[in-house]
Amino acid sequence: MRHIAKDIDKFLQQIQSSKQNSVINLAAEELVKSVLDAEFASIWYYDEDRFVLFRERDEVFAKEIFLNLKKGIMYKCFMNKEAKLYNYLASDKDYVASVDNPDNIKIKSKIMLPLIDGENFIGIVTAYNSIKHNKKFLKNDMQMLQNISSYIINAIYKMKKPMCHIENKVIVDETQEVKSSDDDTLTFVSNFVHDIRTPANSLYGFLDLLESQIEDERLKGYIINAKESANFINELTTSVLNMVSSHKESVVSEIKEIDSMRFFSSIAESFASNMNSKNIYFNIYIDPMLPKSIKIDTLKMKRVVLNLISNAYKFTPKYKSIEFCVKYIPKTNKIYLYVKDTGIGIPKNKQETIFEAFKQAQDTTALDYGGTGLGLFISAKYVTQMGGELSLVSEVDVGSTFSFEIPLEIVDETPFYIPIEEKNIKIAMVMQHSNGFCANNIARHIVRMGVEKTDIKVFESLRDIDNTITHIVVFQNKLDIAFSKKLIQKGIRVIVVEEEFLSIDRATLHQECELISQYGFITNKIYKFLNDVKQPKVLIVDDDEVSVILIQTILENEFCTIDVARNGKEALGMIIDAYEDKEPFDKVYIDNNMPIMNGVDVLREIRRYEEQNNLKPLIAISTSGEKCKDDDDCRLYDIEVMKPFKKEQIVEALYY
To answer: 54-72: per-residue pLDDT in tens?
Structure first.
């Protein structure tokens, strides 16, 4: 740590005293090499006007990487804005020597970090070793590189005059202050290993489920081996935690912009298989009015949610229930989150110390249920660091509720689901008494989306519903497939609730019938079930797989359907076919630089076809990343989106 501080001080003196870009660049490269013990380093900054990555080196070195070639790991880093480690660089499928090794060095390992300032992509810093240098890059190296990234960004700004300088600062949790190297190692191991336990548990549950669905004995053998490995991971992590249970832990912050609904639902759904295997009723409720995009400490939030649901699962017997809930409080811009179970509960004399480290291990609970007691200690600490307080309400043999409220930094305040305007919706819940827990969760979603509570009725049979009903929620135990098909043919919307995991063959249901699992995330399908508004039909046209995946990922949780074409000729055929089928595309995200037929030629043909047939023009969005230079070509497009893609630009284009 001391030598790093000296390196940074030396670096700052060098860039402050120099006005030559090559000297500043060299100082930045030397800082990276010293901190990571690397043979080589490169600082590439982004020239938006020329669409290149540029390096301030002497003339003998390669200076530019042309991003319009759409090739190589560097291009992928530019598009995805994700940090990566490569310890066998040349064997990676995306590796292109001219882009990823422009100096023609026999590279073995490489570390790559995109440099981001707010929403702006600044460049990429890389460090790399040849086959002569026997060093692999590790996650700790990535952390060190991230810690000095603000200094590198500052150097780039100084080289890219007359742009403003940013203040030199490194944001590190106070928990990362240097102690002894032994303590640092042990606390890192404790924290890291604790996070492995829950995914390993879920992995075992999904493998167990997969084994029951597969008849091929050879595949079953592989699955059995994988289950044994997952079980071994669980046993091994328990053993390691026991060895370091007297040590505290530390963690860095990871403040990131997230898709709120997707973030929370993916964590909760990882428990679905295990809940089914243990016969625990599991409800997931994530407020449909939650803002679409927020900034939170993703690392800490994920650990808290995993710990709380994992604890509830551990201490809840079969045939009992667990509820995970995230509510949005618009008046205070906060979220209220709780995990509620009907498990064994916690005695009052234990509740005061429940958030202290390793207390569970001092109790007989550890013998009966396993664990070290570290999870709640970590969770309480993280919630406090996020601006809240973890609370507990519990009663023995009744259950426990862990809850907290934290402030949000909202990026996009648009509700994830716009309230439904249709006021003539009448809902029938066809169910038996034992379905009450799940039915209440479904009803809560429906009401929150804009349907009146008085417009929801309960029936015991599909044949009992009256002629005022427009939408039916039917549980598996009450499902009459033939009769449900007749109801759908009459124009009634039907959604089936699967009570046993993967127990209904989708092919047996009517194609317009929705299917949800009582163990999973249901919000998307409930909204689609209620909403009669036509979803925008979108076509993505690009030969670059990275661009396609990025746009798909951004749009997948928006209210739209998505198709993909890999070249201009294919796109032209799909667009004209859609017009002829009376199901035209509403929006097309199209790149210009494609084989067979470029984007401009496609749009010329489409505009001509639309005019000849008096058709409503589709909205064309250019994703080439280059500003249109020809006025006639520019008029073919409605919107231009620059690279690297920004989520808000892609989404705004959808609703243009």
So the answer is: 998 876 666 899 888 888 9
Q: Are 536 and 654 in contact (CB under 8 A)?
A: yes
- Domain 253-414 is classified in which CATH homologous superfamily? Histidine kinase-like ATPase, C-terminal domain (3.30.565.10)
Distance in angstroms (rounded) separating the CA atoms of residues 250 and 175? 5
**pLDDT for 589:** 96
pLDDT of residue 253: 63
Six-digit token string for 150: 């603000």
- Both tokens of residue 389? 């307080």
In tens, the pLDDT along 119-158 reads 789 999 999 999 888 788 988 888 889 888 888 988 898 8
The dihedral of CA 192, 198, 201, 207: what is its sign?
negative
Q: So where are the chain's domains?
A: 2-171, 253-414, 427-530, 537-654
- Top CATH class, 427-530: alpha beta
Average pLDDT, the chain: 83
* Torsion from C-alpha of 22, 28, 31, 36, nearest 10 degrees: -110
pLDDT of residue 206: 65
- Are 314 and 403 spatial neighbours (Cβ–Cβ below 8 Å)? no
Second CATH level (architecture) for the domain 2-171: 2-Layer Sandwich (3.30)
- The whole-number pLDDT of residue 418 equals 82
Res 250: pLDDT: 45
Please give the model's pTM, rounded to 2 decimal places. Answer: 0.58
Pick the CATH number of 537-654 from 3.50.50.60, 1.10.287.3510, 3.40.50.620, 3.40.50.2300: 3.40.50.2300
String of DSSP letters for 569-632:
HHHHHHHHHHHHTT---SEEEE-S--SSS-HHHHHHHHHHHHHHTT-PPPEEEE-SSS---SHH
Do 384 and 329 meet the contact criterion of CB atoms below 8 Å apart?
A: no
- What confidence score (pLDDT) does residue 603 get? 94
